[in-house]
Amino acid sequence: MVAVSASLDDLPLRADLRGLTPYGAPQAPLPVALNVNENTHPVPEDVADDILDSLARALRDVNRYPDREFTALREGFADYLGHGLSADQIWAANGSNEVLQHLLQAFAGPGRTAFGFAPTYSMYPLLTRATGATYLAGTRGVDYTLSAADAAAQIEAADPDVVFLCAPNNPTGTPLGIDVIEAVYDAARGIVIVDEAYQEFAPRESRSALILLPGRERLVVSRTMSKAFAFAGARVGYLAADPAVIDALRLVRLPYHLSALTQAAAGAALRHAPAMLAMVDEIVAQRDRISATLDALGYEPFESWTNFVLFAGVDDPAATWQGLYDHGVLIRDVGLPRSLRVTAGTEAESTAFLDALASLGPGGAHAAR
Asked: What is the 3-state secondary structure (H, E, C) of 160-197?
């Protein structure tokens, strides 16, 4: 007789986790997958060869624990970011999600609050609740933008321990002005995290929040290698902050949390930063092409400084998502009214998406009645 598996309700789960669902986007073996904001371009062959060589060298000492302080990698990130940063201002972990988790473990937790301006990255509330803290959601304008005055007023009213600012914002793609970041920092008493996961796709003349770090010991700027560096499978995220913040993160990280293989692969990729970033211009060109074509098809694309486009004017998002799926194209329904989100892929992938969407007719597909 086979025993019946238990359900979550049968387990002594923490009360604050009951009823929650794990993060996840649909996964399907479709020809064109444009739903999770990956860089769909492969790593250049010569760079891949150097990464493989670095991994081979690291394997010779894999019987030993890795450098706990990942010193060489931190130096590499400091050089890449510039702005006069040094290795003692850099932290890294297994994807930017773990970077954010470390920050919440150190500065949030039971009895504390974290705040984000909705809609924004869906992992913020999940990470917050997993640390036992309470997540508070603020609001944005009708075009998903934020003004400095409104953002500061919301922070003053909520008085959170941690603030998330996604710049540019996911899932909307909208930019965030430096003036908004300054206003939020001045209004906050806690840690302010500027999540710049998509900063490399912003206009080159735009300013990163890195310029604000001097003299602001509660400001953190988070980045990832998953997007512009085409390194999503390697799981490497990092941040820049005051050295005191880095010391705080050492209190909560697991010992040797970055493997020797991860450190070797990321270090090799950073040595080839110009080659790895060469594909960004092509992605931006496809993003802008997608936006222009969506507009011509009668949809309403929002301004994007990222590698994706959120577009409104979809009569039936669920039916349109399914219609694209049936054409072999996977995009994302992020739960916003009459809207869908698509990643800017290669020229061929972008064409496949646009052709499939056009074939569904004005306003997209409609459910059978």
From this structure: CCEEEEECCCCCCCCCCCHHHHHHHHHHCCCEEEEECC
Winning range, highest mean pLDDT, from 25-29, 137-141, 230-234: 137-141
Give the three-state DSSP class for 200: helix
Q: How confident is the model at residue 22 (pLDDT cuts 50, 70, 90)?
A: confident
Residues 240, 249: Cα–Cα separation, whole Å: 12
Helix (H) or strand (E) holding 352: helix 347-359
Residue 260: CA atoms inside 13 Å, Cβ hemisphere, count?
Answer: 14
The answer to whether the beta carbons of residues 71 and 246 sit under 8 Å apart is no
What share of the chain has pLDDT > 70, as a percent?
Answer: 98
In DSSP terms, 113 is beta-bridged to 134
| Residue range 311-327: mean pLDDT, rounded | 97
DSSP state of 13: -
For the segment 139-186, what is each residue's pLDDT rounded down to a tens digit?
999 999 999 999 999 999 999 999 999 999 999 999 999 999 999 999
d(C-alpha 150, C-alpha 147), whole Å:
5
Please tell me what DSSP assigns to residue 365. -
DSSP 18: T
The secondary structure of residue 232, as a DSSP letter, is G
Q: How far apart are CA 219 and CA 210, in angstroms?
A: 9
Full-model pTM: 0.95
Does the pLDDT of residue 6 top 90, yes or no?
A: no
Angstrom CA distances, 189 to 183, 216, 221, 233, stand at 12, 11, 17, 36
Residue 4: its pLDDT value, please?
63
Q: Contact, 276 vs 229, CB < 8 A?
A: yes
Query: What is the H or E stretch that residue 222 is in?
Result: strand 219-224
Q: What is the largest CA-CA distance in the chain?
A: 67
* 236 in Cβ contact with 95 (< 8 Å): yes
Among the listed residues 200, 182, 202, the one whose alpha carbon sits nearest the alpha carbon of residue 192: 182
